[in-house]
UniProtKB/TrEMBL annotation:
Domain DUF4817: 4-53
GO cellular component, one term: nucleus
Organism (species): Homalodisca liturata
Domain of life: Eukaryota
Record's subcellular location: Nucleus
Main subcellular location of this protein, as a coarse class: nucleus
Protein name as catalogued: DUF4817 domain-containing protein
């Protein structure tokens, strides 16, 4: 629905004071499904209130100043372990604003370490045996890896921490 069609609907509504008549005229003139009665009334109300049917440019959530984004970034660069609540209190921002800045503006995500079972010396032998078996099967069948389903991932750090 373009602005000209909306303006025509408002003009017809002012003339007839009937949204049904406006719908009938719209269908006759444009040959397609007319706007809803609520839309016609909303356009009329907006026109009477503002003198225009165009969208207001200042709708929605106000944009956070770049200074706030920079302050949040500096806070978490200095103290990466700091909680969002503490940072919000220190920066005099809401918790949700800090969270939104971290996620949307700074593209940061929470790091959640998941601890799994400890790796024992016996596990090294089992892993080596598994690797040799997979290599043997891969040598026998080139499409072997295409038949394997890898369903879980984990990152094993040298220090012993596991990130699943």
């Amino acid at each position: 629905m373009n602005a000209q069609e909306k303006a025509q609907c408002v003009e017809w509504y002012i003339e007839t004071k009937s949204d049904i008549v406006v719908q009938r005229r719209f269908r006759t003139r444009y040959g397609r499904h007319p706007p809803s009665r609520n839309s016609i009334r909303a356009w009329y109300d907006k026109f009477m209130l503002t003198g225009s049917i165009k969208h207001s440019k200042n709708n929605g959530r106000p944009k956070l100043p770049n200074e706030a984004i920079e302050n949040v970034q500096q806070t978490f660069l200095r103290s990466p372990q700091k909680s969002i609540r503490t940072a919000a209190r220190e920066l005099n921002l809401s918790k949700s604003s800090v969270q939104r800045i971290l996620k949307k503006n700074l593209k940061m995500k929470p790091y959640k370490l998941q601890i799994l079972q400890q790796i024992t010396p016996d596990d090294k032998l089992k892993r080596k045996h598994f690797a040799v078996t997979v290599l043997d099967r891969l040598t026998a069948d080139e499409n072997f890896l295409k038949k394997v389903v890898f369903s879980d991932e984990a990152t094993f750090h040298v220090c012993g921490k596991v990130n699943k």
